[in-house]
């Protein structure tokens, strides 16, 4: 009996040793499995990233079409694929649905641009009293429920596009019927208001007591240009009306070169600003087709030159961006683009606005000239490891050395450089 016990004990020790050796042998494989990224459903990665994770334990099966998405290095549209993780190619572990996106190359901008934007309709930016023939002050538009930020589209079924259109239509309505019917856009909803017109003794015209505006102009920075389609993106953030802070719905607009002739240096509590003027003999011109949360977009003609980039460079998708050094390109004097060093301090993957990265200026030359990030620098392209990753968008009011940046992938979606399927 004692001999049998010794034999069983020996067998147990040997079996345990074999299990331990087996575990140690496959431990690197389990470590590799642990390192496999946890993709969100319908997440976006570049083709190079997919190739990088296709190792011993992964099998890829396209969900749409029969073409192997990993081999489609020249594809122009994205493809949804099902990634299955299997141990030894046999035992299923998990599956993820991911979207493989095409490799896109863009020419980084950095040029200073003058932006002129005409709104759809005419925006209400203020209200005023109208002094009637009896000497009393009236607020007809306010009493009718018109609010600052409303966009007037029609007056008595007549489209209005300028402040003069509004003034003439109100006066004619007052002469004809003593009131006017306004069709307005408010927070995306169409509303209708009837306003009693008041004959103004000071101007000898019928008025309703509104200040209106239909255009905006300013200086910003070009982010990128795509040579084949001639599409561009700029600013990195939406253009809002200066008085109402409401998004301007674009009816028409243009982009031309601008020249910077002065810099107002930023300081704590007071962001700095580029002071520039539009260039008459501009090297390029563009239209404005879209004003979105990620910037302005359209098509461009002419010469787009950046001395630091002779050719277009690849785009870095969100998953490729990392905390660490990067460079931005912008104009501080005349039309000369210069390169400056920054640090990506934080990446915020879940934000849906134009504040996806926190950046800090580390280049002493830029700090000496501007104090950090200033107005007019919005849209300055950010490049990391030879890829364009985004654009500067905002400055921290209490710390001009730091600000926000938007992911370049958000901008190229708005520009229409990827399919609607990719942007879904």
From TrEMBL:
The chain crosses the membrane at residues 12-30. The keyword ATP-binding does not apply. Keywords: Membrane, Transmembrane, Transmembrane helix. The keyword RNA-binding does not apply. Residues 189-424 form the Peptidase S55 domain. This is Stage IV sporulation protein FB. It comes from Desulfitobacterium metallireducens DSM 15288. The lineage of its organism: Bacteria, Bacillati, Bacillota, Clostridia, Eubacteriales.
């Amino acid at each position: 009996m004692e001999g049998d016990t010794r034999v069983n004990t020996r067998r147990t020790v040997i079996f345990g040793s074999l299990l331990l050796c087996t575990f140690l042998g496959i431990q690197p494989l389990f470590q590799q499995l642990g390192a496999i990224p946890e993709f969100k459903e319908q997440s976006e990665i570049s083709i190079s990233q997919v190739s990088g994770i296709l190792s011993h334990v992964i099998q890829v099966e396209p969900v749409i079409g029969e073409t192997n998405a990993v081999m489609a290095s020249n594809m122009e549209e994205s493809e949804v694929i099902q990634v299955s993780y299997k141990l030894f190619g046999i035992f299923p572990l998990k599956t993820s649905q991911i979207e493989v996106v095409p490799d896109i190359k863009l020419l980084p901008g950095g040029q200073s641009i003058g932006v002129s934007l005409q709104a759809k309709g005419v925006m209400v930016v203020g209200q005023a009293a109208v002094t009637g023939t009896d000497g009393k002050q009236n607020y007809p538009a306010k009493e009718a429920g018109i609010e600052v930020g409303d966009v007037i589209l029609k007056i008595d079924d007549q489209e209005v596009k300028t402040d003069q259109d509004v003034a003439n239509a109100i006066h004619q309505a007052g002469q004809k019927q003593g009131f006017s019917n306004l069709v307005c856009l408010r927070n995306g909803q169409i509303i209708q208001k009837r306003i009693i017109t008041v004959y103004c003794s000071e101007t000898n015209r019928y008025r309703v007591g509104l200040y209106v505006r239909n255009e905006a102009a300013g200086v910003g920075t070009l982010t990128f240009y795509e040579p084949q389609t001639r599409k561009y993106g700029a600013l990195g953030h939406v253009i809002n009306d200066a008085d109402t802070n409401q998004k301007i719905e674009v009816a028409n607009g243009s982009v031309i070169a601008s020249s910077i002739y002065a810099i107002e240096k930023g300081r704590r509590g007071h962001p700095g600003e580029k002071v520039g003027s539009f260039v008459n003999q501009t090297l390029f011109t563009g239209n404005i087709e879209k004003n979105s949360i990620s910037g302005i977009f359209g098509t461009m003609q002419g010469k787009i030159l950046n001395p630091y980039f002779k050719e277009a460079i690849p785009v870095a998708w969100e998953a490729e961006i990392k905390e660490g050094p990067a460079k931005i390109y912008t104009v501080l004097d005349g039309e000369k683009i210069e390169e400056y060093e920054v640090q990506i301090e934080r990446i915020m993957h879940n934000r849906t606005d134009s504040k996806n990265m926190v950046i800090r200026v580390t280049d002493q030359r830029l700090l000496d000239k501007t104090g950090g990030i200033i107005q007019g620098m919005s849209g300055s392209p950010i490049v990391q490891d030879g890829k364009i990753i985004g654009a500067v968008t905002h400055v921290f009011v209490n710390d001009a050395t730091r600000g926000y940046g938007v992911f370049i992938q958000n901008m190229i979606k708005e520009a229409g450089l990827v399919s609607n399927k990719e942007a879904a």
